[in-house]
Amino acid sequence: MMKDLGIHKVYYSIDNMMVCEKVADMISINSSNMSRRVDITHNGAPTDMVEYYRKIISKMPHRTKRRNIDFFIRGVRNEIKGCNYNINGNKLIINIQEQIIGEILIY
Fold this sequence. Notes:
Number of helices: 3
Radius of gyration: 14 Å
Helix content: 25-40%
Structural class: alpha+beta
Strand content: 25-35%
Distance between the termini: 25 Å
Shape: globular
Number of strands: 6
């Protein structure tokens, strides 16, 4: 939506730190309780959190900046215990509760 409105940069805070990001580089996880409920009710999103995030990751760009990945992982870790990741070369492998839920190339 921000791209459609012509917004190019966004400032926000995470872990008591101010962040400036280009909208083009941002990862949309859209995971607030209300948006998740709407997504489940009206869009047929999975109710299981692991499957919900697997779906989100499947819609992410296949190449993403490392900084954006770090923010994404922090957000998921705040919601789901057991979220972890491994980096193998330029490939990020995301695990939730020992299940691989996605792979993304990082730069």
